[in-house]
Design a protein that fits this description.
The chain contains eleven helices and nine strands. By secondary structure, the protein is of the alpha+beta class. This is Acyl-CoA dehydrogenase family protein.
Length: about 425
């Protein structure tokens, strides 16, 4: 079928908070099965309940997403119909008191992202844009009333969110280079500008738009509902990475937003940075899942593929590449676990999250290349199981701050000097 964005109608008015979804029942196992790629047993950092909830996510991804991932990726379509069934597992919105089914750690929430990306990095992005970027914007920047109004229906999968920060002429320099404007007229704000690479924007019920207040030149956040006059979202075509994700170019032409839909806790870009710090961890975990998926596919392929009368897994050069890939996975898993533990402890700094994103995405890029290489010519086909991870890694490597920008954040921490310009 051809994916068609839902008709542009006004988003349903969010209702009063309802009980958060309860995590789906998982097998009553004292120790759920561990991934082979979890070589040092980091799963044990999770509580038994977290392990069971993570296993339920793994089983959902294997059952519902893996069978269709290659086909949807090839057609550049998004299985939007799976959002609500996934939300019923109870892990969407696990970070917020209004929507948490049970107390969770940042390590668990990262682990869930890893389980998603291990099967399909595009699906991880699709879920993460709504449950990570959009919900975190409301969770960190919304008033108590806004949190109660929006977070529960988003956690239930009744509403899907998007996050509009990047612009056609502003990426790494969004802190100072944001061109989208917001002008207040009484209790109404008027937004004008453009956004680019906005995932979910073609079908989202609400898009968090970041714009500069023309009165004080500070960045503010706005909840733009589906169907708002003057808002258009056009799908970006011909992508060769994360093809399932419906990225869009957005045009805001005199879009009116009520003061009640301005995020009340956002007063400057420093507040936006708080959201990015949390979600940058998520990109590190997503990168980890992407390389695990490629590694698992490569191991399976090399055990089946024969050359010179033996499985290629029996040859030294192949084993060397697989060992390097597993070492990259293991080191990256250690970084992801620790940076999330710092988040739980309230001691995580921007440089911590930046280093995690930079390091893990770099290791991911190397790992997916090694995994594609051991599959030979077949490695460029979807049938061998590695090509999709190899292609998707390029987008994950870039978004949420390039390697260079994240390293400069770390460099500022080391030297005390900002070298951004």
């Amino acid at each position: 079928m051809t994916f068609t964005s839902p008709a542009a109608t006004a988003a349903p008015t969010p209702t009063a908070p309802a009980p958060a979804p309860t995590p789906a029942a998982a097998p009553d196992l004292a120790a759920p099965p561990r991934l082979d790629a979890d070589f040092y047993g980091f799963q044990d950092v999770l509580t038994p309940r977290e392990q069971r909830a993570a296993l339920a996510v793994r089983e959902f991804m294997e059952r519902e997403v893996r069978p269709l991932a290659d086909d949807y990726w090839e057609r550049a379509e998004c299985p939007v119909h799976l959002f609500k069934p996934f939300a019923e597992l109870g892990t969407v919105g696990a970070a917020w008191s209004e929507t948490a089914g049970f107390e969770t750690s940042a390590v668990f929430r990262g682990w869930v992202g890893m389980e998603l990306a291990r099967v399909d990095s595009s699906f991880c992005t699709f879920i993460g844009v709504s449950s990570g970027l959009a919900m975190s914007s409301i969770g960190l920047g919304g008033s108590p009333e806004q949190r109660a109004q929006w977070l529960p229906p988003m956690a239930r999968g009744d509403l899907i969110g998007a996050f509009g920060l990047t612009e056609p002429l502003s990426g790494s320099d969004t802190a100072k280079g944001l061109r989208t404007t917001a002008t207040r007229h009484g209790d109404t704000w008027v937004l004008n500008g453009a956004k680019r690479w906005i995932g979910n924007a073609t079908f989202a019920d609400v898009v968090v738009i970041w714009a500069k207040d023309t009165a004080d030149d500070q960045v503010k956040g706005f909840l733009v509902r589906k169907g708002a006059p003057g808002f258009t979202a056009t799908k970006i075509e011909r992508k060769q990475s994360l093809r399932i994700v419906q990225n869009a170019d957005i045009v805001l032409d005199g879009v009116e937003v009520a003061e009640a839909d301005r995020l009340q806790g956002i007063d400057s870009f420093k507040d936006v940075a708080k959201v990015l710090r949390v979600t940058r961890d998520g990109v590190a975990w997503q990168s980890l899942g992407t390389m695990i998926g490629a590694y698992e596919a490569a191991v399976a392929y090399t055990k089946e593929r024969e050359q010179f009368g033996n499985p290629i897994a029996s040859y030294q050069l192949v084993q060397d590449k697989l060992a390097t890939a597993l070492a990259n996975v293991t080191a990256s898993l250690a970084v992801c676990v620790r940076v999330s533990q710092l988040q739980d402890a309230g001691t995580q700094r921007d440089a911590h999250a930046a280093m995690a994103k930079s390091f893990v995405t770099t290791r991911m890029r190397e790992t997916v290349a090694l995994c594609r290489e051991v599959c030979g010519g077949n490695g460029i086909t979807l049938d061998a199981g590695v090509a999709r991870y190899f292609a998707d890694a390029e987008a994950v490597y870039t978004f949420e701050g390039t390697r260079d920008m994240n390293n400069l954040i770390v460099g500022r921490e080391i030297t005390g000097h900002a070298a951004f310009v």
